[in-house]
Amino acid sequence: MVRRAFTLIELMVVVVIIGLLLGIAIPKYQGSRKRTFVSLMKADLHNLMSAQAAYVTSANAYSDDSTVLGFHTTRGNVLSIPEATSAGWIARVTHPGAAGVECVVFVGIVGAATTPATTESQITCTP
Fold first, then answer.
1. pLDDT per residue over 32-43, tens digit each?
2. Is residue 2 assigned to a domain?
3. Interatomic CA distance for residues 66 and 63, integer angstroms
4. Which of 32, 41, 104, 109 is an S-S bond match for 87, by CB 3.0 to 4.6 Å?
5. Which domain holds residue 22?
6. Is residue 71 included in any domain, yes or no?
């Protein structure tokens, strides 16, 4: 007897194996994407620190306007600079792809809440 086709059981086994592989791969892929977005948020804050340092030398104050600094965020990142004075500044970045994560940095003396950042010039993100 010569078989020329797959049986239904063989096809079902292949579908189950593919489903198991996807069940493992998709969560790992989503975690990798989130880590990528967090890395981009940290990079934006690091670049903002450089832009603020360059700006303060000419203006003798920090700016809360990223366009004045000539700074543009990575696509998708949402930047806010709630406080910028001659004494210091604070910035926060979020990304929709990294839900629940916020990265914060502050420099100098700021009155606004700096949570989760606790050390000056150190970029800190919520878990």
1. 889 999 999 999
2. no
3. 7
4. 109
5. 8-125
6. yes
Question: Tokens standing for 83?
Answer: 């406080």
Q: Token pair of 127, please? A: 């878990």
Quote the CA–CA distance of 126 and 117 in Å, as a whole number: 9
Strand partners, 93: 79, 103
User: Tens digit of pLDDT for each residue in 62-87?
Assistant: 999 999 999 999 999 999 999 999 99
When computed from its CA atoms, the radius of gyration of the chain, rounded to whole angstroms, is 24
Strand partners, 94: 78, 102
Q: What is this structure's pTM?
A: 0.78
Provide the domain count of the chain. 1
Residue 3, domain member (yes or no): no
